[in-house]
Design goal:
There is one protein chain. It contains 9 helices and 7 strands, in the order βαβαβαβαβααβαααβ. By secondary structure, the protein is of the alpha/beta class. It has a 7-stranded parallel sheet, with helices on both faces. The longest helix has 29 residues, at 104-132.
Length: 248
């Protein structure tokens, strides 16, 4: 086993499946103790068991301020430190809908999970990281937050907000040994994407020069690099994973 993250503690939200699970699996395989967080208790327990002794499940609603504070404190107490936070919890909301048909409740729900969740969890871990003079925070954004996907107003807008949040946090903590970055994938083959209408997925993959979805393994590889000790001079940055779609 590689030990790139030996002795480190990583919190991964949205860890029961998809990107979050793949990232948790990768970090655990390289020696990190992984605190896996998700709203879905049974799938989360199954996912943690699949990873093994380096993983522990913590049920968490990232939109609940009090619960986030309580769970993060519990993780810090049990593991003694927090080195990494990966905010992978996210929702697309309703898609294939133009702005004049978007429901306010759905718009608010998407922002609550994608933006408020990223804010609450990062705010909760920062005091511990500041005390250590070390930390890595990675927010999962999207190329939709850079370019906007028609028919995905709430999702695109929320991911743009995550990118803005990343820029601010990166600057605020640049002198503390903490880096805060984002990852902006194009469409990645996950259960969330499988649930989208076929025409919506085609709309997105048609924009990718590689003409395919990214894979979970590719995301996990990039995420592991961004939160590694060696990635120490990049902060406030949004990394591209778009198969050539975004070249800026």
């Amino acid at each position: 086993m590689s030990s790139s993250f030996a002795g480190q503690v990583a919190i991964i939200t949205g860890a029961a499946s998809g990107l979050g699970f793949s990232i948790a699996q990768r970090l655990a395989s390289e020696g990190a103790k992984v605190a896996m967080c998700d709203l879905l208790k049974a799938p989360l327990a199954k996912a943690a068991k699949q990873i093994g002794e380096n993983a522990k499940a913590f049920q968490l609603d990232v939109t609940d301020e009090a619960q986030v504070a309580k769970v993060i404190k519990k993780i810090a107490r049990e593991f003694g430190r927090i080195d990494i936070l990966v905010n992978s919890a996210g929702v697309t909301g309703k898609t294939g809908i133009k702005t004049h048909d978007v429901e306010l409740d759905n718009f608010k729900f998407v922002f609550d999970v994608n933006v408020t969740g990223s804010f609450l969890t990062s705010r909760a871990v920062l005091p511990t990281m500041i005390g250590q003079n070390y930390g890595r925070i990675l927010h999962i954004a999207s190329v939709a937050g850079k370019e906007g996907n028609a028919g995905m107003l709430a999702y695109s807008s929320s991911k743009a907000a995550v990118i803005g949040l990343t820029k601010v946090q990166g600057k605020e903590y640049a002198e503390t040994g903490i880096t805060v970055n984002a990852l902006a994938p194009a469409v990645i083959q996950t259960a969330m994407v499988d649930a989208l209408p076929e025409e919506q997925v085609k709309y997105m993959t048609d924009k990718i020069p590689m003409k395919r979805c990214g894979t979970l393994a590719e995301i996990a590889n990039m995420a592991a690099f961004i939160v590694s000790p060696g990635a120490s001079f990049t902060t406030g940055f949004t990394f591209d994973m778009t198969g050539g779609r975004a070249t800026y």
